[in-house]
Amino acid sequence: MRILVTNDDSYRAKGVKVLSRMMRAFGEVTVVSPKFPQSGMGMAVSLGKEQMGAKDLGVDDDGVKWVYLDATPASCVKYALNFCYPDGKPDVVVCGINHGSNACTAACYSGTLGAAQEAALNGIPAIGVSLDAYSPDADFWAVERFFPGIFIRIMDNLPVSFGTYYNVNFPDLPSSEIKGIRASVMGIGRWIKEFVPYDPEGKGGPAPVNQEGESLWRMAGIYEDAPGNHIRADHHMVMEGYISISAHKIDTTDTAEFTRMLCSGFDRDFK
After folding, report:
1. Which of 79, 100, 159, 207 is the 20 to 30 Å CA partner of 262?
2. Predicted local confidence at residue 222, as pLDDT
């Protein structure tokens, strides 16, 4: 099996190193990872860059080939399909292990899942893997213990529809405290009052201004859960101590609304 691994935390992140080592047990692994952290880039591609520096880092002690690209995670997948698999495609793209949750509406912004979307758009099975811990030195032992079985289950039960990819989220718990695995749906919530003054010294007051006259802000945010979330909402499953697996699709059409539009007289013929 040919496995492409990428992430959005850069090639230096602990998570991608753990994942590449783990996936080596299943086949030939190639890592194409961003040079710098790319969290929140979604499915963005590096169209604005005239030059995207790529560096072949060689093969490590586990037999994994490493390349970094000065670009987004989705661009890393594009690069790999162009240059690392000239005779075809990888059998699967696995993205992560992300430092931080990609459950709920974080999935809309995630560079990790953006890379999975790029793979799915190219007809390749794709899985994003995240741990709800933001520390650069996070403990990934629970992922190492349980994800191989999840990977096998997904690969043995691949979807028949085009454009599906999987979002796997682990709670930040010791493996002995994880209750199990739950098939989930994407939860709904939002962040409010996300921009706050940049205040590293904790002085308070208005946003400081730099030499160019720009006011300085940072993203903070207060999370607000939406009412009416499904009982199997992925972020609720993670908070309850389960590993969540949710299936996403490239096609974001609201099919129920499409049907309503057809029945509501939206169609018109111009003569």
Report:
1. 159
2. 77
pLDDT tens figures, 16-66: 999 999 999 999 999 999 999 999 999 999 987 788 999 999 999 999 999
Strands (E), 70-210: 92-99, 126-131, 164-170, 180-184, 189-192, 195-197
Residue with tokens 């979002």: 167
DSSP characters for 186-209? ---EEEES-EEE--TT---SSPPB
Burial readout 92-106 (b: 16 or more C-beta within 10 A, e: otherwise): bbbbbbbbbbbbbbb
pTM: 0.93
Domain 2-188+230-262 has CATH 3.40.50.2300: no
Where does CATH 3.40.1210.10 sit in the chain? 2-188+230-262
